[in-house]
Amino acid sequence: MTREPIRMSSPDITQAEIDAVTQVLHTTDLSMGGQILAFEEEMAKIAGTKYAAAVSSGTAGLHLAVIAAGIGEGDLVVTTPFSFVASSNCLLYERAIPVFADVDDQTGNMDWMRVEETVEAILRGGNDAKRFLPRSLAGQKSGPHSVKGILPANVFVQAADYDQFGDIAHRHNMVIIEDACETVGAHYKGRPAGSLGDIGVMAFYPNKQMTTGEGGVVVTSNEDWITQIRSLRNQGRKPGGMWLEHDRLGYNYRLDEMSAAFGLAQARRLPELLEKRKRVAFWYEERLRDVELIRFTTIAPYTTQPSWFVYIIRILPPANRDRVIERLAREQIPSRKYFSPIHLQSFYRDRFGYQPGDFPVTERLGDQNIALPFSGVMSEDEVETVCFALRKALE
Ligand SMILES: Cc1ncc(COP(=O)(O)O)c(C=O)c1O
Question: What is the pLDDT of residues 345-375, one digit of tens each?
């Protein structure tokens, strides 16, 4: 008997989303209308911030957050090498310099002790700083550098330990940009993802917990920053300004009304969407708990509400992760490596001199992690099929 193909991810769309988009199509406002405002209001509520600005992608949002936070050419920002490449590329767009700090082995989130060590060594300057700066910079200047910010990315299911980042940032007068693209609806010590730094960004690609097709949102309680971001996403038009009046270099990072209406309908279903994903994660864990060669992501004690984006397991030696992926593929089960370390991407190596061995925890997770098929609409039978094939692949 042939079965329906198991997909890596699937959006969860109901009649409510179809009706919301259809209603917009009966109007003449297809961009910059009431849906955007309503969507922004809902997202600010979810993030627990005063303001939200909808944008065309998470990457666009990160770029604008970097500009609003005043990060520019030559500024050092401590960030994670274990993330989707956009969390670091957004710094390159403004010619800032990502200084990587390794991650926590249990959660995959940036380790605050590594961040503190990195910031303090760089501030001391000299040979101490050289050990932590990208090789391309280490030879350039012997005096101390300053560090402008910290940019953690929340990975898989939960936020990093932001109170610790907050202390470091406070001591050294740095901004925190929270890449919450993977954690809409997650809570850290009762506080929502997106509100944990000075400015946060969430993303809504179709594999995310909630989707707008393509899209993202910047959230902050800083009024000046949100005003600037609203102008920057709209070609630098003056706030309240007229057609064709631009007072700064801007971009077209607008989200359209259909996507905003879609997002609003999804945002209103967010508790249900998160609950369904949590249930699928539980089905996986229940079936794989006793497999010795598998390790799960730890849910940290400070995570008061997880928000499952991807379902990641670690394949421990002597099993070989790549061979497991091949064997699953032979059974028509898709799976992916997750993540490929950013510092080892060819253009980061060429530009900054990063090398294998620089961030051992990141590299180990990069070698051992597998993302399994995952979505809120997956059935228990499908999870069973994946787990059966996985056990077989590990034999
Ligand atoms: C950690 C992280 N940052 C940034 C992004 C970028 O979002 P987008 O694809 O909407 O540009 C993603 C998307 O998957 C992500 O996972």
Answer: 999 999 999 999 999 999 999 999 999 999 9
**Which residue has tokens 């094939």?**
389
Ligand 1 centroid – CA 92 distance (Å): 15
The SS3 call for residue 31 is strand
**Domain extents for the chain?**
15-269, 271-394
For 228, the 3-state DSSP assignment is: helix
Q: How far is CA 120 from CA 75, 78, 92, 99, 175, in A?
A: 16, 11, 23, 13, 16
- By most ligand atoms within 8 Å of CB, the mutation choice from 181, 201, 214, 362 for ligand 1 is 181
Q: Quick check: helix, strand or coil at residue 305?
A: strand
CATH number of 271-394: 3.90.1150.10
Measuring from each residue's beta carbon to the nearest atom of ligand 1, which residues come in under 6 Å?
57-59, 83-84, 86-87, 153, 179, 181-182, 203, 205, 216
CA of 87, closest atom in ligand 1: 3
Residue type, 25: L
Separation of 57 CA from ligand 1 center, angstroms?
8
Q: Which CATH class is domain 15-269?
A: alpha beta
The helix or strand, by DSSP H or E, that contains position 369, with its residue range, turns out to be strand 369-372
Quote the CA–CA distance of 78 and 168 in Å, as a whole number.
Answer: 11
Residue closest via CA to ligand 1's atom 7 equals: 58
Contact between 158 and 109 (Cβ < 8 Å)? yes
* pTM for this prediction: 0.97
pLDDT by residue (tens digit) across 5-63? 999 999 999 999 999 999 999 999 999 999 999 999 999 999 999 999 999 999 999 99
